[in-house]
Amino acid sequence: MYRGLYPGRFQPFHLGHLNVVKWSLERVDELIILVGSAQESHTVSNPFTAGERIEMIRNALRESGIDLSRIYIIPVPDILMNNVWAYHVSTYTPKFEVVFARNPLVIRIFKEAGYKVEIPPPFDREKFNSTYIRRLIILNDNWSELVPKAVHKYILEIRGDQRLKEIVGTDK
Predict the structure, then answer these.
(1) Is Transmembrane helix among the key words of this record (predicted)?
(2) CA separation for the pair 117, 108 (Å, rounded)
């Protein structure tokens, strides 16, 4: 069994993330989607809880026809010690052989820990960028075409758009 790890915060899970999942699944038998900063929520940078992000991801994968039996979605809290983060992650996840990442720090950490790292294509990172999408949500601008339909629906159902706007109001 050849298994990969795809770490991210997924705040929110967008079409770029979905494309990385599909790309990664072409290379492995199973994929672990690591929901990082699991302890964070209700802030401008991390508005959604780990549980909400897991639901977003599962809904989007199901909607896309991805076989969920090939996927693990695991929340992992931060430890703020980069030199042991790869080991920390490995204590939460099943064994994996390859890491899919574009973040230079994540790449460095996992390479130093002895893991193979593959860098996915950027999939239009200018547009598919969680910071940008959160800004569009706050501004009441059109963000729905940047996330899977299931994610858009879920965020509206949990009033995540309103939460983000209220958080910004309290952060002033």
Answers:
(1) no
(2) 9
C-beta separation of 57 from 49 below 8 A: no
What CA–CA distance (Å, rounded) separates 85 from 27? Answer: 24
Please report which residue ranges of 67-172 form alpha helices under DSSP H: 85-90, 104-112, 130-138, 149-157, 160-171
pLDDT at 170: 58
Q: Please report which helix (H) or strand (E) contains residue 71, including its range.
A: strand 71-75
- Alpha-carbon distance of 125 to 90, in angstroms, equals 28
Q: Which ranges of 5-94 does DSSP label H, i.e. alpha helix?
A: 15-25, 50-63, 85-90
> 7 - beta bridge partners?
34
Q: 72-96, pLDDT tens digit by residue? A: 999 999 998 999 999 999 999 999 9
Rounded to 10 degrees, the C-alpha dihedral 162/165/170/172 comes to -170
pLDDT at 171 over 80: no
Lookup result for tokens 């996992």 = 110
Structure token pair of residue 134: 């959160």
3-171 sits in which CATH class?
Answer: alpha beta
Instruction: List the chain domain ranges.
Output: 3-171
Query: Hey, what are 57's tokens?
Result: 């991801």
Under the banding of pLDDT at 50, 70 and 90, the label for residue 172 is: very low
